[in-house]
Design a protein that fits this description.
Blueprint lengths: L1 E7 L6 H8 L8 E4 L2 E6 L6 E7 L3 E7 L5 H15 L6 H7 L3 H7 L14 H10 L5 H15 L1 E2 L5 E2 L3 H5 L3 H6 L4 H11 L13 H8 L7 H10 L12 H11 L7 H8 L6 H12 L1
Antiparallel strand pairs: 1-5, 2-3, 3-4, 4-5, 6-7
Helix pairs in contact: 3-4, 5-9, 5-11, 12-14
Length: 289
């Protein structure tokens, strides 16, 4: 095992929310949560590396297996974990807005300044999560995702696997996926996205509009899926997943509405939180849904 540099956590860090997000599939092949430890298998240079992320009150301690890591692997692993913990983004903008706006202050009142929006370790991984999760419950989405990882993931000696690359998904037979509980359309969407030529891991390095445009027109990557990727993998600060059921429920509770707001109303209700709608969404999900 190799020790990686610790990652500092902010005061009041909501580790419970981060652990819940990464532990949403308790039988995950690529990541698991045990107590306050996240175990994640990553493959920054094609070699599967298991990272244990032990969350303490002030920091996250990281160990990796195998131990013979290159400097490039250490840097990539540390950056991926920082994304997973949600600590690579800036939250000061929304907090400053709260000092001037009573509505924003009320939004932040339930979770405090320690709430962060955890990210997936990779962008393509988020896209796959979003597609397998379309129109199915979380448990079944987890089952489909495990199937993908079992078929095309990069194996680690522990028996866990790193999430597949686009090339790994592109090589899958859609008929085989059909025998493994994937609908015909879901199998096609995943393989089409993998074969689209999109540089998924490069999307966070531009702006949100450019990233969304790169995904637009690929069948199966609709508005909600694009928003999920921008929010949960690219860490752009001003994304609202309009049409999301959880966001609708949270906005209804936050505003005391007698109905669930539809997409147009959701969009209007989220505008006061611009340009920090991503973190505002996190507060709505965590504190008001």
């Amino acid at each position: 095992m190799a020790n990686l540099p610790d990652i500092a956590l902010p005061d009041g860090y909501r580790s419970d929310w981060v652990l819940s997000y990464h532990g949403r599939d308790p039988d995950g092949l690529s990541e698991r949560v045990t107590g306050s430890v996240i175990t994640k298998v990553l493959a920054p240079a094609g070699r599967a590396i298991r990272v244990d992320i032990a969350i303490h009150p002030t920091h996250a301690a990281l160990t990796a297996d195998p131990a013979d890591l290159t400097d490039a692997e250490v840097g990539s692993l540390s950056a991926s974990v920082a994304r997973m913990l949600g600590v690579s983004g800036d939250v000061s903008g929304l907090e400053a807005l709260a000092a001037q706006d009573a509505q924003v202050a009320r939004l932040l009142s339930r979770c405090g300044s320690g709430l962060r929006l955890p990210q997936t370790a990779g962008v393509f991984e988020a896209m796959c999560w979003a597609v397998v999760g379309q129109q199915v419950n979380l448990r079944f989405a987890g089952q489909l995702r495990r199937t993908l990882i079992e078929l095309a993931g990069i194996p680690h000696v522990s028996g866990m696997k790193a999430h597949p690359t686009p090339a790994g998904i592109a090589a899958l037979d859609p008929d085989l996926l059909g025998t493994l509980k994937f609908s015909r359309s879901k199998a096609a969407y995943l393989i089409n996205a993998a074969r689209s030529g999109i540089d998924f891991e490069g999307l966070p390095h531009g702006d949100a509009a450019t990233a969304e445009a790169a995904m637009t027109g690929v069948k199966g990557i609709g508005p909600w899926t694009r928003a999920y990727v921008l929010l949960r993998a690219c860490a752009f600060p001003d994304v609202a997943p309009i049409g999301d059921a959880g966001l609708s429920a949270a906005l209804q509770n936050f505003h005391g509405l007698d109905h669930r707001p539809g997409p147009a109303e959701q969009d209007a209700l989220m505008r006061p939180f611009a340009p920090w709608r991503s973190l505002a969404t996190a507060h709505l999900w965590a504190g008001w849904a």
